[in-house]
Structure formats: C-alpha cells, structure tokens
Specification:
TIM Barrel, alpha/beta, three-stranded antiparallel β-sheet, eight-stranded parallel barrel
Length: about 475
C-alpha cells in the first residue's frame, strides 16, 4: 500500500485514496457507509436537500460507527435561504468534511473553515483550482469532461489533471470516467492523490439510484453517453451534463427551453419535470427513461451490480497488482560489485562512491511523465465523441512512472523541477537517459530495476513513442 497511500488519506481519514462522489440523491448513508467500511471516503449527496435529511443521514452514519465522511452541497444550484440552513446544519453537526461544486462561494468556504471543517471543491480548470486554493480549500477535485452528471470543464482528464497538480500545492483528486485499478494508478502517476468515483459506485447494491437506472448502466458503453444541455431545470444556465442517450437528448421529446413544464414523475409528493436534473431514485415513480440517466465514460468497464465494498476491493487489487508486478520481469541476474560478505549491494550510493543520483532520477521522473502523457494522447480516438479518460494499455507505463518517482524520492528532494527537452520523442529521450544512467549505478537492485524499465520501453507491445 506504500504507493497508494497519499496525503488525501491522512486529511480525510481513509485507508485508501478512493472517494465516493457526492451524487445528489444517489449517495445516501447506505452507500457512504459501505465505501467507508471498504477503507474509502464518501460524500453524502445533499444538493438542495432539506437540513432535516442532512441530519438524518449524518446520524445514520454515526450510529453505524463512522466518523470520517463528508456532505456535498452546491451553493450555485441552491436557494440562498436553503443554502444558509444547510451550512448552519453542517456546522451544528460538526460534519468533518464538506464538498462543494460549480461556482466557488468564498463566504461559504470561509464559514466552514472557521468552524474547523475540511473543505473540498471540484473544479474544471486550472484557474478555478488556483482560486479555490487561495480561498482556503484544502483539497481540489479536477474533473475531466468524461465525468457523468454535471460537467464543469471542457478538457479531457489526461490533460487537465497534470496541469492542475502543477498549479497548486494542495492535494488533487481526479474525477471523470474512472472505474478501474489501472485508472487509479494512471491518475496517481499524473500527480493525483487519489480518484473520485461516481458512476462506478452508482452501479452498486447500496446506491440510492433506481434499479432502472442501474440496469441501463450495465447495458451501456462509453459511446452511449453524451454531453447535453437538455437537462437544466433546477440548475444555473450553461451547465452541461453527461447522460445516457435517450429520446430527450436526441430532441424527440421536444424543446427543453419551451415555456411550461411537463410532469413525468413523482418523489413522495414532489413533481419531477421533463428536462429537470433529477435522476431516477428508489423513492421515485414515473417515466424513468425521460429522466437524466447520468453516466460517465468509464461505464463500459462496469458489468455487474455488486457491492460497493467488492468494487473498491477490486480496484485496489488491480492497482496493487500493477504496482507489485514487474511488467518487464526478466532472468537478469544481480551482479555484486564486491564479495557477498561485505553486503556491498545493500550499501548506499554515497558509501560506494556512486555519484549523487537525485537529480538524474528526478529528471527521469519528468521524462516518464512526458512519455506517459504522450502514450495517453496516442490512445485517443479522434472520431469518438465519448471515450474513457485513460487508455487501458497505458496503466503499465503509469505503474513504472510511480515506481521511478518513488526511487527519486528515496534519493532526496529535487532542488528544482527538471525541464524535459521536446527535441526528441519521449520514448527516445527515456531510452537515451537510461542508457547513460544505468552504467553509473553500483547498487544491483536499483541498476537492475532501471535496466528492466529500459527493456520494458523497448518492447513493441508497450511502444510509447510520440
């Protein structure tokens, strides 16, 4: 778990860097409790919900013995009077973490921070991340355009995430179409401290989504999702959502902005309108196919409605397998530089007269980052309107990237951020650097590790050339 543990785990009180998105209506106490039991962290989705429901769900979690959880609210989509009551309730209940989204409300952020509450804010751009950090937000979520539900940004996660992590010093979580252990490893290799899961945990037994929505998710692939502005009632203008395609998204249900409202469902006496942002919940009845069937582009990797605990365990197991299995495992034998009696292979580089490797390894880390971003860009189908954020075959390279970063950290802190030349393709640059570095290393374990990395990069199967 060394490489998977991150500062987010310490801030949120979780064992693993997997976070349940605060999906409105869907993320209730049952789902948050399951995620917490699996070692992750969960947000209650309380957008526009009355304080009484917030209190009830918080009490249910605490009665189950859970102390680490969050409440998600959206100031821009909430009536000011209700928002005031929501914030006051969170403070009164001493909720440990509050998540916010859409326009940053600095006053709300300040009130929550003054009350000792950790604030997490989801952003869609580098500028928004910087603004949030300056306002006192302690964790930002970088949301790529692949996300299900309301989508703030317009950039793919593979591009947005490393730019956000480079722009702020606070931890960054990644969100948008993520569903596998490979996604977790790749996001962390790009600088994330963990990932946020929405659709992947909506399709679980414990989520409050209606069974109809869950079954539609199982039958879908990334290409069945679409970004649309058709669902807009209850939200600020210009707020696109990613949903499953339907008669509504094709225009067959009429003009979303025509005057008048059509009732298509009911939730315990509350009418559900056509073109509203309400998604089907267990507590609803009506025309579910005409409601907002939220889904991120990672949906094609979810093929069963299992427990949230099992889903998180599978993601962690996949990630750990990537990080503990050497993709370029060979029979290359260690070569001792002296007799086995003096244990030379276990001594530090300084003891052996080896030159300082910190700068070289940090440069190698930067080169790995460039190669990974190049490989991710290669995996993109320019003709596909909707696709998962990360190519599955990039996960092995991401694993190597994380391992190189760990090696660099073990040698010491870099004095400055290395600049990678763009004159050579990333693959050629990496191979050139490794060719010069490996012969200088006297420690067998480190030398052999980097030699195996070089072999990995040379294979046709894992070609990462630009």
């Amino acid at each position: 778990m060394t490489l998977l543990h991150s500062p987010v785990c310490d801030l949120l009180g979780s064992r693993i860097p997997l976070v349940l998105a605060g999906m409105g209506g869907v993320a209730r106490a049952e789902l948050v409790s399951a995620v917490t039991a699996a070692g992750g962290f969960g947000f209650l989705g309380m957008v526009r919900e009355p304080p009484e429901l917030i209190q009830r769900e918080v009490e249910r979690l605490r009665q189950s013995g859970h102390r680490h959880f969050g409440v998600n609210i959206i100031p821009a989509a909430t009536d000011p009077a209700l928002l005031e009551r929501q914030v006051a309730t969170c403070i009164e209940l001493a909720v440990p973490v509050v998540g916010t989204f859409w326009d940053l409300d600095e006053q709300v952020t300040r009130r929550l921070r003054d009350a000792g509450i950790t604030v997490v804010h989801q952003v869609g751009s580098v500028d928004e991340a910087i603004e949030a950090a300056r306002a006192g937000v302690e964790i930002v979520i970088a949301q790529g355009r692949e996300a299900g539900g309301h989508v703030r940004g317009v950039r793919p996660l593979r591009d947005l995430l490393p730019d956000v992590t480079a722009a702020v010093t606070i931890p960054v979580l990644a969100a948008g179409g993520l569903a596998t252990g490979g996604d977790l490893v790749t996001a962390m290799a790009l600088g994330a401290a963990g990932i946020v899961l929405g659709t992947a945990l909506m399709a679980t037994e414990e989520s409050f989504a209606h069974a109809y929505h869950k079954q539609r998710l199982l039958a879908a692939d990334a290409g069945d999702t679409v970004l649309t502005s058709s669902f807009h009632i209850n939200w600020p203008p210009n707020a696109p959502v990613r949903v499953l395609k339907s008669a509504v998204t094709s225009g067959a249900s009429g003009d979303p902005h025509a005057p008048g409202r059509v009732v298509i469902g009911d939730e315990e006496g509350r009418p559900i309108y056509l073109f509203s942002t309400d998604s089907p919940l267990r507590s609803m009845t009506g025309d579910f196919e005409s409601m907002a069937l939220y889904a991120g582009t990672g949906i094609g990797r979810i093929r069963d409605i299992g427990s949230a605990v099992a889903r998180l365990q599978n993601i962690v197991a996949e990630a750990e397998a990537l990080l503990t299995t050497d993709p370029a495992e060979t029979d290359y034998d260690d070569v001792e530089v002296s007799s086995s009696v003096c244990y030379a292979g276990e001594m530090s580089g300084a003891y052996m007269g080896e030159a300082d490797l910190a700068d070289d390894l940090w440069l190698l880390d930067a080169q790995m980052q460039a190669a990974l971003r190049s490989a991710l860009a290669q995996g993109v189908n320019p003709d596909a309107a909707s696709q998962p954020p990360f190519a599955a075959n990039a996960a092995a390279l991401a694993s190597w990237s994380l391992q190189v970063r760990q090696l660099a950290a073990g040698e010491g802190v870099a004095t400055s951020h290395p600049i990678v030349s763009a004159k050579l393709p990333p693959r050629a640059l990496l191979l050139q650097g490794l060719g010069a570095l490996v012969p200088r290393i006297t420690r067998p374990s480190l030398r052999n590790r980097l030699a195996r990395l070089r072999l990995f990069l040379q294979t046709e199967e894992h070609d990462v050339s630009a």
